[in-house]
Design a protein that fits this description.
about 400 residues; alpha/beta; 17 helices; globular
Length: about 400
């Protein structure tokens, strides 16, 4: 497998600049969010940008990265870098993945953002974790991914037959793994949405996987065309199942695909998950959207990594390539990007997402080059990263 030097992307931008061609999209998160805010409808922007409660945990997720420092190393032969990883049997050119976002379909002008993100995933080789809540059925998204692996994120519904159907559809569509989200059987308290009485799914948005599933449709007294409002409320009735550990038994038996648990933050939970045949864990607090007042996710990562001999994915609070490197140094196998690519999609569609991913990878690659880390394995060596006093 070829090993691209992602940092060369800056040379392309500078070269274009000498010809008077300015970048269409910003490289930093703050400017990107500002650009997206100008084009997104207010109710979509608030849904994407907002968090739970006073958004303390959301802010803490981002701020906590600043309290970790990378130790520069010299004479390490880092002129070329290798950012490849292997996950679920796939050789991947980057350690990134795209987090599931339940309204990503609404973040592009054509309201088919799921497909646009899949196209960006196919172009960059960055796997997409596809949300249960999508504007188009999962099968269409999987097809748009091309040769890039996709992961299907499942919100297990109360209806067991519906849950099994969604799992079987994910298998048939060719997804490489299934991610079970554990912290969203009920939605958190989100004042930005509550203050405006705005919940997109209750308006019928991003429910294509339900509206194309016979197990859901048979629950409806009327067709979708006759009463979309009633269908949306039936979705709310069936949406979230509060799982117990024993539920992992039937989930494990339901599929041969690798299963990861999204939302594991405790080392004790991580160790227990191993006993149920789970293949990977995802340290995440849902970007601060579901529960307020908790720890920053990055502060919990290292202990979970040390507790198990499994791949550990990470998301929540990642805003830069520097954040990506720090998460890798703390043990993450793959690092998830969320709000940055949602805003990039709003600002520039497929090209915006591609630019954002290339920018994140370029920053990460250059940091590794300058600090003397030619491979991800070097980043994981003892002494690479330390927490600075607050």
């Amino acid at each position: 497998m070829s090993k691209p030097q992602f940092g060369d992307y800056q040379l392309q931008i500078y070269r274009d600049g000498t010809r008077g061609e300015m970048p269409r999209f910003p490289a930093d998160f703050v400017s990107l969010e500002a650009q997206a805010k100008e084009v997104l409808p207010w109710w979509i922007y608030n849904y994407v940008a907002g968090g739970c409660g006073d958004e303390y945990t959301q802010r803490e997720n981002c701020d906590a990265f600043r309290h970790y420092g990378i130790m520069p190393r010299r004479f390490r032969g880092s002129q070329t870098r290798d950012l490849t990883i292997k996950l679920f049997g796939n050789n991947l050119t980057t350690p990134l993945f795209l987090c599931p976002i339940g309204v990503i379909g609404l973040c592009s002008l054509d309201l088919h953002g799921d497909l646009r993100v899949a196209e960006a995933s196919a172009r960059t080789g960055v796997p997409m974790m596809v949300s249960t809540l999508s504007q188009v059925p999962m099968e269409e998204i999987a097809a748009a991914l091309g040769d890039t692996p996709g992961y299907f994120q499942l919100y297990p519904p109360k209806d067991r037959d519906l849950a099994l159907s969604l799992i079987r559809r994910a298998e048939a569509a060719g997804f490489a793994a299934i991610s079970i989200t554990l912290d969203t059987w009920v939605t958190g308290w989100r004042p930005r949405d509550i203050n405006n009485g705005s919940f997109p799914q209750l308006r019928g948005h991003c429910l294509a996987n339900y509206f194309t599933d016979e197990n859901f449709l048979k629950r409806l007294p009327k067709t979708l065309n006759e009463d979309l409002y009633a269908a949306a409320w039936e979705w709310a009735n069936v949406f979230g199942d509060c799982l117990s550990w024993d539920d992992l038994k039937w989930i494990r038996q339901a599929t041969k695909l690798p299963i990861m648990l999204k939302g594991i933050c405790s080392p004790d939970d991580a160790r227990r998950a191993v006993d149920y045949g789970i293949d990977a864990l995802q340290v995440s607090n849902h970007g601060g959207r579901q529960a307020n007042g908790g720890w920053a996710a990055i502060d919990l990562l290292e202990d979970v990594v040390k507790a198990v001999d499994l791949p550990v994915l990470f998301d929540s609070g990642v805003r830069s390539g520097t954040d990506v490197v720090k998460a890798l140094a703390l043990g993450a196998t793959s690092v998830g990007i969320g709000r940055p690519y949602a805003f990039a999609l709003a600002a520039g569609g497929v090209e915006g997402v591609v630019h954002q991913l290339k920018s994140l990878l370029a920053e990460a690659d250059l940091l590794m080059a300058i600090d003397g880390y030619p491979t991800i394995a070097h980043l994981k060596e003892p002494g690479t990263i330390a927490r600075k006093p607050r």
